[in-house]
Design a protein that fits this description.
five-stranded mixed sheet, 49% strand, mainly beta, 109 residues
Amino acid sequence: MPNELTKADEESNQALPIAQPKADVYEGDDRAMLVAELPGVPKEKVELKVERDRLTIQGDTGKLRFERSFTLNEAIDRDAIEARYSNGVLRVTLPFRKPTSQRISIQAA
């Protein structure tokens, strides 16, 4: 695997391969969709988290560690992110914030 690295496992001091899962990002009018392939990985071994402007997919199957991060821009509504996992495919829906506008009154001088 070309993206494979090794990193010491803290518990066993053995090197575990670290892989970056294959992922694609699609953008629509009102949302982006992240699709990551995690074949053979049980749902319980997948962790998805958002910290500041970074979305991270990570996990550890005991034989393989994987991690991949994506930068979120300010248009993403972090409170509305949803994820589904089925048959080794993680689909993360990243809705865009609804645009807001406000009318500004003009004062006479």
